[in-house]
Design a protein that fits this description.
Number of strands: 0
Number of helices: 11
Number of domains: 1
Structural class: mainly alpha
Largest sheet: none
CATH class: Mainly Alpha
Order of helices and strands: HHHHHHHHHHH
Helix content: over 70%
Strand content: under 5%
CATH superfamily: RNA polymerase sigma factor, region 2, helix turn helix motif
CATH architecture: Orthogonal Bundle
């Protein structure tokens, strides 16, 4: 009987779910970027170069949407990676490297926006140097009516996202465009998962109201 109870106890231990925090740490440790960052901590400078190469473009897209200026966003990308470099010894693999990166980049962007708040112009997220969206692929057949309508819809969505409060905007961009989950977004913004869900709910409610005609037409 005792042996049976012992076997049952062992089985229940095997079937018990891994705590969420521990599961997140395990996922982080197995992440390729996390491994590169840990090797960089040990002195392998080429690992930092690989991280910059892998993340510069998506980070530039994120920051361009945040601050609506390609020139400024390039500077903020450099500042973000500089902070990564300077803080390398403080990194701990408790979350994926990308989560840590976007936490730093979000703070960099919010700090910039706070400094520029008094004289900031209206946000427009299609602000490439040549007038084209810097984060979208070129049209295969530019100038057609369908392409123009699609571009107009995309511009409306970008403007609506750009008009959101800064933290809501950051959350939507990380969720919709960077593919980060609630935990990662919360860690980047210093929020609980519940607060992150609430923040995103409010943001998407605002977007649904602003883009109601597109949504009702099935075009969003």
């Amino acid at each position: 009987m005792d042996a049976a109870r012992e076997r049952a106890c062992m089985m229940s231990m095997k079937l018990s779910p891994v705590p969420a925090a521990e599961a997140a740490r395990e996922a982080a440790r197995s992440d390729a970027d996390t491994q590169l960052m840990l090797r960089f901590q040990e002195g392998e400078e080429t690992c930092f170069e690989l991280l910059v190469h892998r993340h510069s473009r998506p980070l530039l897209h994120f920051l361009t949407r945040m601050v609506a200026s390609p020139q400024v966003s390039e500077e903020l990308v450099q500042e973000s990676f500089l902070r990564i470099y300077q803080a390398r010894q403080r990194y701990r693999p408790e979350a994926r490297f990308s989560t840590w990166l976007y936490r730093i980049a979000t703070r960099v962007a919010l700090n910039h926006l706070r400094k520029c708040r008094k004289d900031r112009f209206a946000i427009s997220l299609n602000a490439g140097e040549d007038g084209e969206p810097v984060w979208e692929p070129a049209d295969q057949a530019p100038g057609t009516e369908e392409d123009l309508l699609r571009r107009e819809r995309a511009q409306r969505v970008r403007r609506a996202i750009g008009a959101l409060p800064e933290r809501q905007r950051a959350a939507v961009l990380m969720h919709k465009y960077q593919g980060l989950d609630y935990r990662a977004i919360g860690e980047a913004l210093g929020l609980s998962q519940a607060a992150t869900k609430s923040l995103l709910f409010r943001a998407y409610e605002t977007l649904r109201e602003e883009l109601r005609d597109l949504l009702e037409g099935g075009q969003a």
